[in-house]
Structure of TrpR-binding protein WrbA:
Amino acid sequence: MTAVKVLIAFYSRNGSTEALAQAIAEGAQAEGAEVRLRRVRDFVAEEVIQSVPGWAANRDRMHAQYEAPTGGDAEWADAIVFGSPTRFGNVSSELKSFVDSLGGLWFQGKLNGKVGSAFCSTSTRHGGNESTNITMFNFMAHLGLIVVPLGYADPAMFRGAGTPYGASSVSGQDNTPPSEDDLEVARYQGRRTAKVARLLSAAE
């Protein structure tokens, strides 16, 4: 049986969203999925990037490690998982720029029926982790994706990590990495997304 194909398209500045993306990839691969991890590119002015400690170094490291997502990746995938840090309770402009680039595929109907899911990270508690994930549901609906939230179908969800809308973590002002519970929720999200995509593919 052909493996389902999962695209994880994310933006990360300090590594928190990246860590969740990697855990989602692990979960999807545990379900037998083929995974593409892609980091969208920064587009703010270089002087802004250089003014924030660690931003340039993290950018350069992640650019070397991950390709940028493309429309070809989205067309290839059976499932697309979008990840973003929270920006004032909303999705980052970097990730949204990738979404906005998918207009041609949307117009051709080539994304209809694919699975979609969302995850995010915030720097403060109640900093918009739920609203950011839900915001991504909006554009997934417009793209024609079948949205897969997490619900409470795994024990990891009852340990106070993540949200029923998607995995998340809180980094604080010291860039604390996701906890093991946060990562376990993300792995569950990868498994769940890949499983739903496989079931939908088998039904076609």
Q: What stands out?
A: The longest strand covers residues 79-87.
